[in-house]
Each structure stands twice: as C-alpha cells, then as structure tokens.
Amino acid sequence: MAINYFYIMTKKELRIKYQQLRNLLSNNDVEGMSLEIANQLVKMPIWEKKYFHVFLPIVEKKEIDTEFILHVLAGKDKEIVVSKSDFDCIGMTHFLLTDATKFKKNHYGVSEPVDGLIVPVEKIDVVFVPLLAFDKFGNRVGYGKGFYDIFLRECRPDALKIGFSFFEAEEEIEDVFEKDIKLDYCITPKAVYKF
C-alpha cells in the first residue's frame, strides 16, 4: 500500500517557493499561460454578472497578464473596475475603467488609475484576485501586504472571488487564519478549481 506524504508549508515558505517558480518563467511562458487562463475563464458560469474588478499585473513579478481578460470583459460589454491603493490605510479606491482613464505606476510597479468615476465596493459582483499560491480548500497566499484581505472583507458576501494561478493547488496551507477570506474559484492554465 502506497502512502502519500506531503509537506504542508507556511504562507512565508509558499511566498518564497512561488516567487522562485515565477522567476523561472520566460515572457513567452507568462503570455501563453495567461491566454490559457483567459480561455478557461470564458467557460465559467459568471457572465450574467455586471461589475468585474480586475487587477493590473506587476510585470517585473511575472504576474498573470490580465490584458486578455480585459479584452474578454470588454467584448462581453461588462463594467470593468480597477483600483488605486492607499498605503497609509492599506485601503483601495475602485474606479470604473473607461477610455479616458489615465494610469500612473505606484512605487511597487503597479499601474493605477489617477482618478475617475468611483465605484462603491458593494456594486462589485466579481473580483479577480492576484495570488502567489493557493490550496485545495480555496485559501490563498498573496504578498502579505493585506490589501486584498481587507478589500475582500468589504465585498458583498455573494461577490464571487476568483483567483488566477500559473501553478496548480497546494494540498494545504499551514497557517490559515479564521479571518482569511477564501476563494470561490481558482483558474490555472489546466483547470478550474471550485471551492
């Protein structure tokens, strides 16, 4: 009888592991896998929703290129919401993405809207969540700054939380807290996980 052993890692260990794995990806890998994730997304049962919150990637950290997803949303005539971070209060202000939206990079390399039409958080139906790793229970590991933890707590309980990952799920994350908000789905190039 075979016994499967797996090592349960902490968030800190997973951050190191997945940042290293991402660093090994070429720009072509990032582009190809981002496109595969967008293709998986098209098949999801979410298209009756109206307001979709999208993160803009930190290219230097080889995050998922959400440009393909922006094209899908625009093609389906959805309202696209992007955020600006406030590092003093670890909060986010959400803006409607329009043709007039101007962007500026913050000191972490994230493109953010300069200003525009503010969208109240309770209007948001779907949040696409950046992450470094996730497990088979819908727990996620981000960069540890806490912006998305706070944002997801402010969302309506029925707002869908969908993560994107280049890599498949870990079995389990060791140091999950009771207040951590779980994902509803996570999409990888190969699969859609539903929690």
Description:
This protein is of the alpha/beta class. It has helices at residues 11-23, 27-42, 67-75, 147-154, and strands at residues 51-53, 79-86, 91-96, 103-105, 111-113, 126-129, 133-134, 140-141, 160-164, 185-187, 192-194. It has a 7-stranded mixed β-sheet with strand order 3-2-1-6-9-10-11, sandwiched between helices. The protein starts with 10 loop residues before the first helix and ends with a strand. The model has no long low-confidence stretch (mean pLDDT 92).
How is this structure best summarized?
The chain has 4 helices and 11 strands. With 195 residues, it is α/β, with parallel strands linked by helices.
Number of strands: 11
- Total helices: the number is 4
Radius of gyration: 16 Å
Helical fraction: 10-25%
Unreliable spans? none
Mean pLDDT: 92
> Beta fraction of the residues?
15-25%
Helical/strand content category: alpha/beta
Instruction: Sum up the overall morphology in one term.
Output: globular
* SSE ordering: HHEHEEEEEEEHEEE
Strand order of the biggest β-sheet: 3-2-1-6-9-10-11
The major beta sheet can be summarized as: 7 strands, mixed
Distance between the termini: 30 Å
Q: Topology, please?
A:
Elements: H1 11-23, H2 27-42, E1 51-53, H3 67-75, E2 79-86, E3 91-96, E4 103-105, E5 111-113, E6 126-129, E7 133-134, E8 140-141, H4 147-154, E9 160-164, E10 185-187, E11 192-194
Parallel strand pairs: 1-2, 1-6, 6-9, 9-10
Antiparallel strand pairs: 2-3, 4-5, 7-8, 10-11
Descriptors:
single chain; 195 residues; alpha/beta; 7-stranded mixed β-sheet; 11 strands; globular
